Amino acid sequence: MKVDTQTLILDTLAHKSIIKQTVYNNTLESFKMLKSVCKYIAQNTRKSFRGSETKITVEYRENGAFQVELHIAGDLLVFVMHTNVFLFDRSNPVWKTPILTKDPDAAYCGMINIYNFLADSFKYDRGEDMGYMIGRIFINRNMNFMVEGKRQLGVLYNNFGNEIIDKRSMRDVIQSAILYSLDFDLLVPPYDQAAIVTVDQMKIKNSYANMKTGKRLGFKFYNENDQL
User: Fold this and answer.
1) What is the pTM of this model?
2) β-bridge mates for residue 54, sequence order
3) Phi/psi at 136 (nearest 5 deg)?
4) Alpha carbon distance 109, 100 (integer Å)
5) Across residues 184-210, what is the average pLDDT?
6) SS3 state at 82
């Protein structure tokens, strides 16, 4: 029997809308959890240094509903929740996991990206400076989650379907992102790349403000399994 096209459209819309709305709500709740954990880490870290001679900046800031900044010493971690829902590409190995074999709709996920910037890039409004995505968190309609990322972030939670996101796992992800960022140092750029500057760059008050800076400026940013 021929299926009415309009009925098929309505059924598909209803089915996908429910899934995507659930995924969005789960991602939003997870991001609220992330905010709470980031705030706790900042407060706890400051408390640990209180009274010592070591002066280390540790600050938590919210920049709108979908962006959080965690400033630790010279590093700035920026967590950004994407407001759209995504589906894993069919070539992604995640499709071989048992959960997606049984429930393909579990492949619809919300996404929280983790970026690492130099804190001075924001402080001095160096708009040409570069940041790097060091990880991203995927959350589906069942609150299952996985993490893609550099080094320890990439192996921390990668068994999709067997992990439910909670404060403990969120803390592990954030702390791993902090450790990676602290160990991801700013390297001296190649001499030839830094040897030529414009008159405008030198005329402004801070001569470095318009000179592009990044932790791996002029160097290849290696894949997860490579040495940095």
Assistant:
1) 0.83
2) none
3) -150, 140
4) 12
5) 65
6) coil
